[in-house]
Amino acid sequence: MEQLCKNIYSFPVVLPNSPLKAIHIYVITGENGSYVLDTGYNMKESKESMIAGLKELGLQIKDVSLIVTHLHSDHSGLISDFYEEGCDIYTSDEDGKLLEITATGEYWNKSLDLITKYGIEEEFDVTDNPGYKYQLSSQFEYTALKEGDTIDIGEYCFEVLDLVGHTPGHIGLYERKHKILFCADTILNTITPNITFWGFEYKNMLERYLNTIHKLKKLDVDYCFSTHRDQVTDHKVRIDEITEHHFERLAEVFNSLEDGKEYTIRNIASNITWRIRANSWDDFPPAQKYFASGETMAHVELLVNYGYVNMREINGVLYFSKKKSNIDDIRDKINIQS
């Protein structure tokens, strides 16, 4: 347990079988109640960590309200446990709706379509996805939060931020007076957040993510609290590093394409570099193949949208080829609102 600021605490909840190892859970206490940000997986070990952390603060699950920053199972898996204890649940309407269809199984039908689009249907099954394995166990009722809403907790007044990018409805909290930012998975230190393709109904998520982090760069922040690995010490410097990473990745993806050839997402993803302990694409765990394919698709989609790459679909599989000879002008073209 660590006290970060007055009445703001953090403790880890373990994420077994995950490269992330743990999630930082934040608790904000006040005379008008206590709020927990995110949950961990829907599994015994995560729940025990949650109960133990709350106990150190003299709290039980039934004593708190829950804010879910986004739908990923390491952040939402225990929602049903909080809901069954009578807790108020808050999340964005966009991710809340996606969580509803996760609980009914409909969400995973969409994943089957993506697996086909990427060309990895023989290498990955939805049951390999930790989001499937450790998802919430039942539907729940929630209060939808949107950009500009405020939550008063003791001496703090937190503004809700729309942080679209890592998920379609990712939210954060900002306390202007005390310069505190809860950014969840939007800004991470030592690793870059996974920006994936969510389907063509969610257009150009990579560009939207870049605009989100550049919006955060304008904020006056003394404390930047993210949910994995080391804490962010200078959010502006880290945003610049993440932005540069994505420009380098766009160039790597584009340069992996040879003139006159067509590629599936699997072809591209297996020929670019990844920070993973595997000698080759064949050695990737199935879930990592899915995550790598989704991230590759997010970058390729941007290149398609800006006219650098052609795309066509044959029998449900997407194929890509070079349309231009280089992407030297891409930094000037991408519409980042600085």
Automatic annotation (TrEMBL):
Keywords assigned by UniProt?
Hydrolase
- MF terms (GO), sorted A to Z: hydrolase activity
Residue span(s) of domain Metallo-beta-lactamase: 22-228
Q: What is this protein called?
A: MBL fold metallo-hydrolase
Say which species the protein is native to: Peptostreptococcus porci
Q: What is the lineage of its organism?
A: Bacteria, Bacillati, Bacillota, Clostridia, Peptostreptococcales
